[in-house]
Amino acid sequence: MNILASGMGWIDHTHGGLNRYFADYTAAMQAKGHAVKGLITAHGERTTAPAYIQEVLSREAKVNPIVRSRAFANKFRYELKASPPDVFNPHFALYASLITRQQVPLEVPIVTHFHGPWAQESQVEDRGASMGQKLRYQLKKNVEQLSYRRSDYFIVLSQYFRDILANEYGVPTNRIHIVPGAVDVDRFRPAVDREEVRRSLGLRPDQPVLFCARRLVNRMGIDRLIAAMPQVLKEAADTVLYIVGDGPLRGRLGEQIEQLGLQQSVTLLGKVSNEDLVRWYQAADLSIVPTVTLEGFGLVTVEALACGTPVLGTPYGGTLEILDQFDRKLLFRDHSPEAIGDKITAVLTGQCTIPSRDACRAHVMQRYTWDIVSESVTQIFEMAVSDRRRLMVR
Q1: Which in 61, 127, 140, 241 has the greatest CB count within 10 A?
Q2: What is the mean pLDDT of the chain?
Q3: Within 32-117, where are the H helices?
Q4: Sign of CA dihedral 123, 125, 131, 135
């Protein structure tokens, strides 16, 4: 099957869950035997993307979203003539918004991956209520709705995002298919010698290590995790927390660490390589996911579990769905610093028993591999193609 997919950026250029998913997803569909062409932009800069991933900008340039959207539309039209696809599969509403249904052949279905409510995410991060901000949020939602009206079917990574797509965008639930995300289990796997990995990172063998990999933005709840650390240190004084990721809150979080006197216990690592990310997952005793809202799946959750590291997370969205079907004891009661601190302390002191590292890995292998996802997505694509053919016969 020929699949033309449009994403956003490339993972080694712009970190983020959507870009990680798109890179691994297109690789998995290619490995499944499909002919995949993926469209992305890294502002024309060089990346490690494979040959089937195409940059839409012809030269290196920092351009605005409208210019990038036009570049996606132009590249789509070129690819449509060069090699007509069986399925058009957009992953980001803005970059698909200028590709109209009239430009897509009638026999080609549009199956959209919904990775989250773009407008709502912006509103949560900006915390804005001015008239200008409200107008920008509404404009973003209009772009989303324009793009989604053209789609035959949708793929979401959780029941939580299915409900948002249905309730906020009016998409009938019979057009929405839930296919949970996945992890590269060959890359994210337990260490052969975990103690050696810990030594290489400068960690003591007996030191409780907490790890958190997140973008440093409001909805990720990093400030609440840091606020919970004084409570944790009262019961487990040697505990250290390492936070990987970058974002607009880095300065503010650094100030919070200093104000709480946590400089010896909490470290902001910033961005790390993919290889080092795996090593930190492998080395940690617990991975923490303190997200406050709009957690559509929680790729970091399955990445950590695949490395054998238990995950403690807030009881919302995709994190709830992943951990609830594994072991409810892994969930905080809410996202408050007190709830986060209580659970971490209970686990570190042995008052709360959680699954073993082997059990964490096994849970991922049973549910969240790309073999499972590529098979499920292929079946949805085949159904969409069949439905389009029936439509043409009428």
Answers
A1: 241
A2: 94
A3: 65-82, 93-96
A4: negative
Q: Containing H/E element for 366?
A: helix 357-367
Side chain identity, residue 241: L
Question: What is the residue whose two structure tokens read 């795996």?
Answer: 278
- The CATH code of domain 194-367 reads 3.40.50.2000
Q: Give the list of residues 6+ apart from residue 195 with CB closer than 8 angstroms, or none.
A: 205
Q: What one-letter code names the amino acid at 349? A: T
Stretches in the chain below the pLDDT threshold 70: 127-129, 394
| Cα gap 334→314, rounded to integer Å | 6
Question: Crossing angle for the helix pair 17-31 and 299-306, nearest 10 degrees?
Answer: 60
pLDDT of residue 128: 61
Can you read off the two tokens belonging to residue 96?
């698909």
Cα first-last separation, the chain: 24
DSSP class per residue in 133-163: HHHHHHHHHHHHHHHHTT-SEEEESSHHHHH
∠ at Cα 289 (219, 183), nearest 5°?
Answer: 110
Q: Which two tokens stand for residue 183?
A: 């992890």
DSSP 42-65: STT------TTEEES-SS-----H
Token pair, residue 284, equals 């940690």
Q: Write phi, then psi, for 366 (nearest 5 degrees).
A: -80, -25
Compute the distance between CA of residue 394 and CA of residue 392 in angstroms, rounded to an integer.
Answer: 6
**pLDDT recorded at residue 37:** 97
- Can 2-182+369-393 and 194-367 be said to share one CATH topology? yes
Give the pLDDT confidence of 4-30 residue by residue, as tens digits: 999 999 988 888 889 999 999 999 999
Please report, for the chain, the start and end positions of each structural domain, with discontinuous segments joined by +. Answer: 2-182+369-393, 194-367
Structural fold of domain 2-182+369-393: Rossmann fold (3.40.50)
Residue among 53, 119, 54 at smallest CA distance from 92: 119
3-state secondary structure of 124: helix
Q: Cα–Cα distance between 151 and 147 in angstroms, integer?
A: 7
